[in-house]
Amino acid sequence: MNARDSQLSERLQTGFLGVIAFALLLFLLVQARFMLICLAFAIIIFSLTSDAISAFARLKVPNWLATTLALIAIAIGLLWAATTVVAQVNEVVSTSILYADRAQAALSSLSQRWGPRAQESIATFLGNIDFAGWVRSAAAQASSLISGSVLVLTFVGFMFSERIWFPVKIERLTGDADQADEVLRIIYSIMRRVNRYLVVKAAISGVTAALIWIIFRLTGLELSGAMATLTFILNFIPTIGSIIATVTAVAVVLAQTGDPTATLAIGGACGMVQFLIGNIFDPMLLGQTLRLSSFGIILSLAFWGAVWGIAGTFLAVPIMVAIMIVCANIPWLRPVAIMISHEGLPEEEPRRARLRG
């Protein structure tokens, strides 16, 4: 066997092993999805609260006191958020049952105006949609939030207990102080950019949810709190979340009023709020924070949504930010960071020394 055939055989073997490794990783991601999702959320919460604890430390507050207060606040916040979501989902389910007949009558009225062919098409389309299955799935996932919150809180507690030793472990793991500093810099860069994204996104989603709540309250519609909560949550899913929130709002308005004109007016107002905030304020405030390709975000949403479901769509952007920063600091993976970044500029700061591949 000559050198060329030997090199080709080695590349094929490497590629085959890479495919096997990816398949094994994908299998583990799917099988351990609940634990990994809780771990991912725990890391995000730990990252957010670490900055707050550091700020308290600068105010001469003892570290043990700041950590204890942070854990108490996290526990209360997680349990409150989980119970609120479960309550809102139950309210939506119970209310949708009450308005099911009215919604069906409204759709029949609309289809009759557009002719028998449109009526048949709408009936076929609605017949292919498993609304009951969607409602049951949403209720089941909402009920699992409480058990997930307990696991997340457990993870966060152990992370705080190991927080002070983490830099020491990195230095001993790498065996080089300079390389350990570089690894810590990468980790802190990921934490800083993800934290900034989450804080800004939470503020934008909060404003959007408040406006939707005002629209529903002013028009005298029910489920204003549920729609505001749903809007706030869905707006953490880039692009797709705002579309789903708008379509859901239109469906809720049609079910409650049964009036196509009122539905178009109120639904148009909700859509205008989503459009203005999503296309003007959102890119303006998050553009320099994310530095991610729009196409890359859609691919990340599709992949993590297929692997981890709804939770994966919420984690898609933070995971993609972490992957981009890590790849940008490893020379042989830098092309990946360039491809998934906006304008081919993955760094938020000038280039520094990189990890050797």
TrEMBL record:
Give the transmembrane ranges.
12-28, 34-57, 64-82, 138-160, 198-216, 236-255, 262-281, 301-330
**UniProt KW Lipid metabolism keyword:** no
**By its UniProt entry, which InterPro entries does this protein fall under?**
AI-2E-like
Q: Does the keyword Amino-acid biosynthesis apply?
A: no
List localization entries.
Membrane
Report membrane topology.
Multi-pass membrane protein
Pfam families found in the cross-reference section = AI-2E_transport
Q: Which UniProt keywords apply?
A: Membrane, Transmembrane, Transmembrane helix
Which family is annotated?
Answer: Belongs to the autoinducer-2 exporter (AI-2E) (TC 2.A.86) family.
List the PANTHER family hit by this protein, alphabetically. Answer: AI-2 TRANSPORT PROTEIN TQSA, TRANSMEMBRANE PROTEIN
Protein name (record): AI-2E family transporter
Source organism: Paracoccus aurantius
